[in-house]
Write a structure and sequence with these properties.
The chain is of the alpha/beta class. It is built from six helices and six strands; from the N terminus they run βαβββαβαβααα.
């Protein structure tokens, strides 16, 4: 199986082509949030949350999402510390992306997602979504918020 290194966002842009749907992944401590975007890379939409269990189970689910949605690239959220340093969560996300690259054959990049959880929580509050629903869907909404930032960058 061909493996990709984790690409810079600019290398990623070159490798995915113009009309390509992307998968955003927010690897949290307990859950992994997923979001996808349209092939024109205009809108990121929350997709689902998967409880973290065995990595093989997660890989199978990711491959299924890739196949069913014609995904051409993966953006993994990188929770860099607010001061720009790499902390435990960022290292964990980087390890996740590296393990993913050993099992997935499409391009993978990481995107700074420092405020994605907070941003998605505030956005859903503005939409009058009740607190328990916001918390239940936080990981997939954070994945969409993070992916939206990445596709906006890719569009410029």
């Amino acid at each position: 199986m061909k493996t990709y290194n984790i690409l810079s966002i600019d290398e990623f842009k070159t490798n995915i082509g113009n009309n390509s749907r992307l998968l955003g992944i927010d690897p949290g401590y307990k859950n992994v949030g997923f979001a996808i975007c349209d092939e024109n890379k205009r809108v990121a939409t929350p997709l689902k949350i998967i409880r973290k269990t065995k990595f093989d189970t997660l890989i199978n689910e990711i491959n299924k999402i890739i196949s069913e949605n014609q995904i051409k690239g993966i953006v993994v959220g990188n929770p860099i510390n607010m001061d720009g340093t790499i902390g435990k969560s960022s290292q964990s996300a980087s390890d996740f992306a590296k393990n993913l690259s050993k099992n997935i054959t499409i391009p993978i990049t990481m995107w700074d997602e420092r405020l994605s959880s907070e941003g998605s929580f505030k956005l859903t509050r503005k939409l009058n979504v009740n607190t328990s629903n916001r918390l239940d869907k936080l990981d997939q909404n954070a994945a969409a918020f993070m992916l939206q930032g990445a596709i906006e960058y890719l569009s410029n």
